[in-house]
Amino acid sequence: MPGHVLVMLVTVGLCIANLVTDGVPRGISHTLAILLPAGAVLATLLVRRVRPALPWWLALGALVVLGANQVAFLVQVDVQGGPTPSGPLVALALPVGYLFLLGAVTTILLPFIRRDGGRLVEAAILALVGAGLVWVTVARPALEDADAPTGELVYSLALFLVLAAIAGMVARCAVAQPAARPAMVYLTVAVLATFLGNVGRVLTIEGPVDAIGAWALLWLLGYGALAAALVHPSSEHLGVPGASRDGTLSTARLTLLGFVLLLNPLLASAQEAFGDGADWMLLLSGTLLLVPLVVVRIAYLARLQASAQVALTHLVSHDELTGLISRRALLVFLDEAIARLSRPDARGLTVLFLDVDGLKATNDRYGHRAGDQLLQTVAGRLAGAIGVDDVAARVGGDEFVVVCEGSPDATRDVVARVRQVVGEPVRLAGVELAAGASIGIVELGPGDAVGVDEVVALADSRMYEDKRHRYGRAHVDRRRRDGPEVTPSPTTGPVPDRSGTAADG
């Protein structure tokens, strides 16, 4: 029998024993229903490598503290016959136990909040709305009828809201994380049972100690479910959330968030209209919780939009295969670099147009995947050869452009490194391919006023001159973009002829 099933069966059995017995036997069954899940958690932590372990040690602490509280009840009420348990342990055990329990579940939720924060915030908001309605319609009237002090009202409301928010987030994780779903379902049961148990505590606060009756069984089921969550094998996935979820907001969900912001003022107005008086505690605490959560949700959306904008900008400005900047981005950069030549502190500009050798032959012989790897290798080498202020771009199938700012003397080392790295052999899947590239170079000096298209066209033309020099005219593609001769722009004047082909070196 699976361990988690055994834990729940034992818990249910002890709950039944709690219903059909009285006095000391009932107290013993109640105590065992807390301490046995604590033992299951401790045994699992000692036997199995649990990651992360912190939340489960906190859960163990919660069960131990709550178990100690129940032992005090067993001794003082069931054994000694006292009316109610008393003492510092009894006064502190319940809030401290809940603090440990909430800390455990919150720690479990942290990795999921990082991945699916927007949806988890929505779930918490909706759960808070539900808790507020339960408070207004059920809990607050019962506490007021019992003349509960303000401290009890504040404590109960805070507990309701916190438990509800955590229950909503855990339930969301149970839906969105298939790998961890069984453990998350157990955790959802644990938190919901604790919430409903506190509803029962509030409803029976005016009666005798044992008036809570069946409501107490919800706490016991919650403790068993908490232990079963760890014992279940899917708890191994609690520290490894799945892929991030879509965090966009539909119109309907955005409208719902707007309604949530209006709900507290609407409830207060309705209470005033019917003469009950506005619930200032709910109005204050609900506003202090709901408004920041809605703002956080919108902040998640804004961050998502910003990330999408960055991704879109990168997609437009970079070549998907090589990661180098695209032709569009290159032309923008080159235009700005040419404009800087008119400054008094201008240094110069060197443009290299490269046509990589052997791409078609590689594609034909080894497949397009190998051709892609060839281009990626060349692109990586170019990126490593240039300076931090220089750029390399892929402008066509096997064509690259490098732009270096600086005087020809200053950029000569960069040009030499580019020639060297593109000429080194490329190893693909155990096959070493001879590499190389035809290179056309254009150098511009301070004060040169030329157009971007003219510079690129001249570098392209000189690249073909280099190709003819390396392979002979018969091997140069006749369909190259010779076109008409590059003519000066009527507004910029001729392109200065400061450089030749790569072969002129």
TrEMBL record:
Pfam entry (one): GGDEF
Spans through the membrane: 27-47, 54-77, 89-113, 120-138, 153-171, 183-200, 212-231, 251-268, 280-300
Keyword tRNA-binding: no
Keywords (A to Z) from UniProt: Membrane, Transmembrane, Transmembrane helix
Biased composition (Basic residues): 469-478
Domain GGDEF: 347-481
Region (Disordered): 468-505
InterPro entries: Biofilm_reg_signaling, GGDEF_dom, Nucleotide_cyclase, Rev_trsase/Diguanyl_cyclase
Annotated SMART domains: GGDEF
NCBIfam families: GGDEF
Protein name: Diguanylate cyclase
Species of provenance: Cellulomonas fimi
